[in-house]
Amino acid sequence: MPGAVVIGAGPGIGRSVALRFAREGLPVALVARTGTTVEAVAGAVAPLGVRVVSLTADSADETALRAALDAAAAELGPPDVVVYNAAIIQPDSPGELSVRAHLDAWAVNVVGALTAAAHVAPAMAERGSGSFIVTGGMPEPEPRYVSLSLGKAGVRALVTLLDKEYGPSGVHVATVTVAGAVAPGTAFDPDDIAEHYWRLHTQPRHRWEREVVHGGPAAAMPAAAGDRP
């Protein structure tokens, strides 16, 4: 059975998405920045009886991320769905961060998603199927979270570009925009949010959505959408 790859497999949305796909019987490859993080999620998924591959890579490191995706494919075969859930979530006001800090945030929040898509989407397009889903957020920019607002705006633009490039060939490119701080037992429970990813992946082509928004149109807190791998 084709598998799922979750990049940014942290304790929030990443964990819940991995569990959601595993419950459907899909083997799962998990990518996180540290071994401790990825093994914690793998330990939660393993009891479901699917094959789990644990990989470490910083999503801002193109070579490491591509190598992790190659390793996942070598273990599980070409993925049927790839979820990019990595993000740097930090409060920062206009002018507070250095140029270097902004570039570091952009590398994780946006460029890592582009790297992953460029690595996996062409093969999906060649076979005419597959899903590439990105965790989005900040439907309204928030001046207390400048780098995150810029990053999530970039994600929205990136998904539009990828959909135009690969959608006609059968690749469903979409974003789940989370409009609030993720926390269990709230309106932004990661298990509830994870349902969107499965629904997008299984949508028939004539009903494809490019963006699903979870929650209200704006949030006072950052859309804690994405886990730093």
Note the main attributes of this structure:
229 residues, 7 strands, single chain, 44% helix, seven-stranded parallel beta sheet, alpha/beta, 6 helices, Rossmann fold
3D structure, described in words:
It is a single chain. The chain has helices spanning 13-23, 35-45, 62-76, 99-127, 146-166, 190-202; strands at 4-7, 28-32, 52-56, 81-84, 131-137, 172-178, 211-214. It has 229 residues and is of the alpha/beta class. The radius of gyration is 16 Å and the shape is globular. Helix content is 44%, strand content 16%. The model is unreliable at 217-226 (pLDDT under 50). The two termini are 25 Å apart. It has a 7-stranded parallel beta sheet, sandwiched between helices.
